[in-house]
Design a protein that fits this description.
The complex is a heterodimer of chains A (74) and B (388).
Chain A (H helix, E strand, L loop, with lengths): L6 H17 L4 H24 L3 E4 L16
Helix pairs in contact in A: 1-2
Chain B lengths: L5 H14 L1 H4 L1 E12 L5 E6 L4 E6 L13 E12 L4 E14 L1 H16 L16 E6 L4 H13 L4 E6 L7 H15 L4 E6 L13 H8 L5 E5 L7 H5 L2 E3 L2 H8 L3 H62 L1 H6 L4 E4 L17 E6 L2 E6 L20
Parallel strand pairs in B: 3-5, 6-7, 6-8, 8-9, 9-10
Antiparallel strand pairs in B: 1-2, 1-4, 2-3, 4-5, 11-12, 12-13
The chains are: A mainly alpha (74), B alpha/beta (388).
């Protein structure tokens, strides 16, 4: 799988491959090549899911910590 | 200088409050908020106006002829005292009457109608949420349970995602500015796939920033689609109406934002299964095709063989018919000179007294020439005199 491929793009590609395989009408060697590509994409997706750990970052905002107590203001 | 215990002081305050003629018998008008009934039949709520609020308790609410609901403008009667356990000054209500709908609710309805008229809530402009978001913006308070819940849920369901927190106050004076700024900060990055705007449950004034027109417009013009998860599932805010997707709670918003990795795994498996089925089907078809070609070829070869076989048999028959043996079988005889073995085909080759060898179909015998005469009987004409 191309490194530049997002997870969503990878799944899209997998869907396309599956559809063309199901449609058939191409030489067997081409089908085998497509299958190999699909299987490797699926494997990479699976590994990504397996190894993923949620990342949390923060953007700078004007947040002023003025109301954390939850008390009504004024 | 004397130092008092807390109980002494709260007791003192109570004495003063309860001895005051005005506070002992007072009517107060305001808007009901934070109403909650207890199982023992008491009703607790807050009465408020733009500037302030006071806690109220109504013992044995079954005596009430009306249902007290949040947002209701009421006039309540009772006496003021202090609840020493919490130190809260409150109105002990013995009578309550509605005076119409509260100003916050009126404002809510006014703004809702206005924005609806403008088309900000149009279903057709709701954008679809990305199926597999990579970066999820979170607009909420950085300290609260809400962020914790959202992080937990997304971490469990779809840890592939990256959360980008845009911290903001979610109530109070700075909340409106903060929420708008947080949305701007996230949209300004350009890489956020979906934004969750969330806040935990609270009273209508706690949630009021989410009923603000400027916040509504900021959500409407957000580049990334927005999921709102504000308050509890019974709370509806203007932000909910304008968001691309409304979730009943912050946790529900987190669940709506991402797929479940289990479902993704299932989808991956089904792709693999479908691909394998398609490929093995094709291989099976190819095999069948090869089998068919093989069978057809075999038939062809068999045909060639059998056609040639027939030809061969024809040749054999022909050969048979040419063999002298079959001629002998028809009653002809082969005559040879006994002396030199030459085949005798003319009377000129023999003389009286010569020994000849005669071959017939089943054997040979010798004979002697006793005479010869030229010519042949008429009936024998037409027989070939020499087959070679």
């Amino acid at each position: 799988m191309d490194e530049g491929l997002s997870f969503e793009q990878a799944l899209k590609r997998l869907e396309t491959i599956t559809e063309s395989l199901q449609k058939g009408g191409m030489p067997l060697e081409d089908m085998i090549a497509l299958f190999e590509e699909g299987a490797s994409i699926a494997k990479i997706c699976h590994e990504k899911l397996d190894k993923a750990e949620l990342k949390l970052s923060e953007v700078q905002t004007i947040f002023e910590n003025d109301n954390e107590s939850g008390e009504p203001d004024k | 200088m004397q130092v008092y215990s807390v109980a002494r002081i709260t007791g003192y305050i109570r004495d003063i409050l309860e001895s005051d003629a005005l506070l002992a018998d007072v009517w107060i008008s305001g808007e009901v908020s934070n109403a909650s009934g207890s199982s023992s039949g008491h009703l607790y709520f807050t009465l408020k106006d733009e500037a302030s609020q006071i806690r109220c308790v109504l013992f044995n609410r079954k005596r009430l002829s009306i249902d007290v609901e949040n947002g209701m403008a009421v006039v309540a009667h009772g006496h003021i005292s202090i609840y020493e356990v919490s130190g809260a000054v409150q109105l002990y209500v013995d009578m309550i009457q509605p005076t119409g709908i509260g100003v916050l609710h009126m404002e809510f309805e006014r703004l809702k109608a206005k924005l609806e008229e403008e088309g900000l809530f149009e279903p057709s402009r709701k954008r679809p949420l990305p199926e597999y978001p990579e970066k999820i913006g979170i607009v909420t308070s950085p300290g609260g349970a809400v962020l914790h819940d959202i992080t937990n849920i997304i971490s469990r369901r779809y840890p592939l995602a990256e959360l980008v927190l845009a911290p903001t106050a979610v109530q109070g004076e700075s909340a409106v500015r903060g929420i708008i700024n947080a949305l701007d900060a996230l949209n300004g990055r350009g890489d956020i796939d979906v934004i969750i705007v969330a806040r935990g449950g609270g009273s209508i004034e706690d949630l009021w920033a989410f009923n603000d027109e400027k916040v509504a417009r900021a959500i409407y013009s957000s580049r990334a689609p927005v999921i709102s998860g504000v308050g509890h599932d019974t709370d509806f805010t203007i932000a909910d109406f304008v968001a691309d997707k409304r979730a009943p709670t912050p946790s529900a918003a987190a669940e709506l934002a991402v797929p479940h990795s289990g479902e993704v795994e299932t989808r991956l498996q089904s792709y693999i299964a479908a691909m394998a089925a398609a490929l093995s089907g094709e291989i099976e078809r190819s095999r069948q095709h090869a089998d068919e070609m093989y069978t057809a070829m075999s038939h062809q070869i068999d045909n060639v063989i059998s056609i040639n076989g027939e030809k061969l048999r024809g040749q054999e028959l022909k050969l048979d018919s040419l063999s002298p043996l079959s001629t002998l079988e028809r009653g002809y005889a082969l005559v040879q000179s006994h002396a030199n073995g030459k085949v005798i085909s003319s009377i000129s080759q023999v003389e009286r007294g010569d020994t000849i060898a005669v071959t017939v179909a089943d054997g040979r015998f010798n004979g002697r020439v006793t005479g010869a005469k030229k010519g042949i009987q008429t009936w024998m004409k037409g027989f070939p005199s020499n087959r070679h």
